[in-house]
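Same chain as my last thread, 328 residues:
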Amino acid sequence: MRTATKLAIAALGVCALTASAHNQAQAQDKVWRHGLINAKADAGIFMMVSTRDFAAKQGLKLEVSQFKDDQLALKALVAGELDSFEGGPQGVFAIAAKGGDAKILGCHWIVVPHGIYASNAITKVEDLKGKQIAVSAPNSMPNMLAREALASHGVSDKDMKLAAVGGDRERYQALIGGVVEAAVVSNEYEPIAPKTVHLLVAGRDAVPNFLRVCMVSTAKTLAARGDDAVKFLTAEMNALTFALANKDATLALTHELTGSKPDDPRPGFVFDDAVLHKAVDPALPIPGEKIMWIQDQMVKAGSISKALDLAAVTAPEYRERALKKAGM
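reply #2:
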């Protein structure tokens, strides 16, 4: 082979390698901005996607922001500050009912770990009539869980006093401090709770149709970055699968993110409970019946005026593409 020909082939090879490296660099420059609730005892499961290059392997750079509650994350999404966030589907209905832009991509924590915890003076649900119950803002999961759980025991809205008391930590402190007689809090506080309080109603039993967390984006983002949305969902599927199969790594990440001590029983309790009750599904299903049930409760409560079609608030095609990429 002539020298000139060899040089030409070599040059083409260098160009190909340079182009490949350039494309990889461009892929890594694509930032997907995702929001979630502040790290707690379940942080290892929620935040696993931000470790071990799950996103990078999909050619995506992931930027995660934490929020006090999903209401704030939803506002950030609508304002264009996020590409996606994970929270309860209630906010999606509240936005969509007003003509806003929000789409459910899939749900991973499909069984609520929360419950109504009460002082030992409260021995049955009926004892809560006229008592103060710490919940969160209207349309939030704690608020709706309290209403529906109590209604299933014949306790109506008129019989209870719901007080919006911030996040899980604030509600738990209000309960053990005697400020309220009951509170809707995550089960992560169960292993450290004093003997003066107990679990009165488990959310998974009282409201089995409740969904804790769904992945939410906007039609605008999906139209502009549909391929990136698929990459993000694929990374989430792979990360959740890894987290559930590797307890030690997941608990280690939780301790690292929350600064908790190795002997803190909460991360292990939350992990074991999630696995036992199959609360987390890495396939990110879109359970239509449960989603529409939640919407029906919002209509009954007057939070939204009428029900919307499932197709108006979901975008299942991105999940379907991600399932294939994840080999699921």
